[in-house]
Amino acid sequence: MTLSIKPFKAFRPLQKRVEEVVLPTFDNLTNKQLNKILKESEYNFLNVVSPKAFYPNITKKNSKKHAHEHLVSMIKNNIIFQEKEECFYIYCLDKYNKKQFGIVASIELEEGNNKILKHEAIFKARSNSIMETIEHTKMQIGPVYLSYKNQNSRPIDFKKYERKKPLYKFKSPGGTTRSLWKVSEKNEIQSLRKKLSKIRKFYIADGHHRYSAIENLNKKKNINKIKKEKINLLAAIFDEHSVNILSFHRLAKFKNFNQQKIIQALKKKFKLEKKLKFKNPCDPGSVMIYLNKTWYNVSLTSNKKLYTKYETDTDIVEKIMINSIIKKQCNCSLVNLSNIPGKFDHKKLANEVDKGVADIGFFICPLPMKKIMSIADKGKIVPKKSTYFDPKPADGLVNLLMDI
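RESULT FIELD:
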């Protein structure tokens, strides 16, 4: 089974309205920045994706009505418009002194697709909510972020596009400079299609929930049909070297928390060292934990039998350290387990513990992209919120009208 990767007639914002329209990435914003967007961005796509952000008490029925009417208004008032011709788009993300180039395209999906691989568990309720929004608006607002193994001896030359004036170039509130170029010439489109057709597998970097929503829409569309129809997926495609992966750290709050008992129990499973100050763990297999104003380094690889049993450090933190050792062996009841995106440094984690929000924090190394691909190739799934990609494509910049 091969995937058909195609240009498409995108819906996108007018150049002068782009910063107003593009959906904010919540985990890159302070509350002050988010509140400013909610107050000042009349035509932000957030109105379509999540009317509850503006109207917390809105009913489900009125939420759907608001989303539809807002999208219609954006089109009617020429805030967004549809291209007259099918195009690919070159997308550049610039953050952390690194430029990442990729292609925005439409991918034809059919049931049983095994060319796009997952690696992370999802929340079904969130996937269902996205599916309902797509069904109601007939539009995919923002792409699924895909990566692939770069085995091409002649990779795509993005530099030639960079020399041209982009459709958009702006810095979003999270600190990412975003640039977009249109590819509309037939020869260029054919060249890109040929190169993209050589990619054997794609790996979902970010967007597991929306990909699940498209899969479910596909099943729903083809239920009881003998001849199955295909459905289109909006995708942003970046090679494995053009993604930036951070981790998700963990904060845990317990009842009957006993520091001394927990430290002794951890020492029986792993090599554990008390540290005078935080030392950044450079490689997977090394986790820093913080409790009672003290940092400890835990070597997960010191227990080779256990370490080879699990795919990720997050698995060991959650299943062994939290659930098996702290909860069961030390008789501590878990009150809350939360995540801290890897864009925050160790001070954020320590501060939450010092304030009493949590009893213990786990500072976890990010998964390398090759490891993510290996996990996906095996058909395995890591815990929710195991990987954090920053920067990532913004929603609302390039959008796909659905035939559903």
